[in-house]
Write a structure and sequence with these properties.
This protein is an alpha/beta fold and 294 residues long. It is 26% helix and 22% strand. The protein has a single domain, classed as Rossmann fold (3-Layer(aba) Sandwich). It is globular and about 55 Å long. The structure holds zinc ion (ZN). Zinc ion binds next to loops.
Length: 294
């Protein structure tokens, strides 16, 4: 696919898809696809951005880890290009779909979680759009948009689905999975979930003043949380049982309808959060224009 230098569409809503997103793309579960473009950015090319129409509502969809199978692991996703491209497309609200592991034993595979906080344990990723500029002290009292979180929780409640609204997500570097000692450490630090994708993505989205909220479905218990034999040749080498896999697959199938319901609830609703004012101080000082795109 060739990259586009002009912005192909202006759509305020986007979903960034996690592991398993390619199944939705290839299974046509996201509605009618109207267009797909790779965008050029100062940080390289974005992942393909798909314009979908689901029940007469347009949204953009970006699959972080590949289009037809899992072909790009988390440390190698170009987070800056992806967020920059969505900002170019006029996106204001992002639902960040991801499938983390479970540290808090009260959570179960297949549960939905709308995390409220994050611990960044990544080490080798580009974390800011504003290198060498003096811009970047951005408060993180609510690292995820509370307005989208509320809309997500409302839809989960209406559908009587099991979910958790208080959860701390720890983001590790990967691509290898964590050791038992690392999971114990993250638990002591207060993490309920562990994954590899939300940092620095969430922080880059805040730098672009986007509303960004993760919507997680839980895939498996993290290492050492439950006894699990090593099973050669299977997904995660036995960390997920067959019963858990069925619960997870069922959760993924619900995803398109849930997302559509959230977007329906947010349509026409003004942004009432502080996300769009994250850089106000730098704009007031004249260090950035109203549109902060580098
Ligand atoms: Zn917001």
């Amino acid at each position: 696919m060739t990259a586009s230098n002009t912005v192909p569409f202006k759509v305020p809503l986007a979903v960034m898809g996690g592991s398993g997103a390619y199944h939705l793309l290839t299974g046509q579960a996201l509605g009618r696809e109207e267009a797909c473009e790779v965008l050029d950015t100062p940080y390289g090319q974005s992942a393909p951005i798909h314009l979908f129409n689901f029940a007469n509502r347009e949204f953009l969809f970006l699959s972080r880890h590949g289009e037809t199978d899992y072909s790009l692991t988390a440390p190698f996703v170009n987070y800056r290009a992806n967020i920059h491209a969505l900002k170019q497309c006029g996106v204001e609200r992002v639902i960040a779909w991801s499938g983390p592991g479970i540290i808090n034993p009260n959570f179960k595979p297949g549960d939905f979680v709308v995390p409220h906080d994050i611990i960044d344990e990544t080490r080798n990723r580009e974390t800011t759009f504003f290198k060498d500029t003096g811009v970047g002290f951005i408060r993180q009292n609510q690292p995820f948009c509370p307005q989208i979180a509320e809309a997500l929780q409302g839809v989960l409640r209406e559908n009587a689905l099991p979910y958790h609204d208080q959860a701390v997500y720890a983001c590790t570097e990967g691509p290898r999975l964590e050791t038992p000692a690392e999971i114990r450490k993250l638990g002591i630090l207060g993490a309920d979930l562990v994954g590899m994708t939300l940092a620095p993505e969430a922080f880059l989205a805040r730098e672009m003043e986007l509303c960004y909220t993760p919507f997680c479905y839980l895939t498996n218990y993290a290492e050492g949380i439950k006894p699990r034999e090593f099973k050669k040749g299977e997904l995660f080498e036995g960390m997920q049982t067959d019963a858990e896999k069925k619960q997870v697959d069922a959760a993924i199938k619900k995803f398109p309808a849930l997302i559509n319901a959230v977007f329906e609830n947010l349509q026409g609703v003004e942004r009432a959060c502080d996300c769009s004012e994250a850089l106000r101080r730098y704009k007031n000082k004249g260090m950035l224009g109203e549109n902060p795109l580098p």
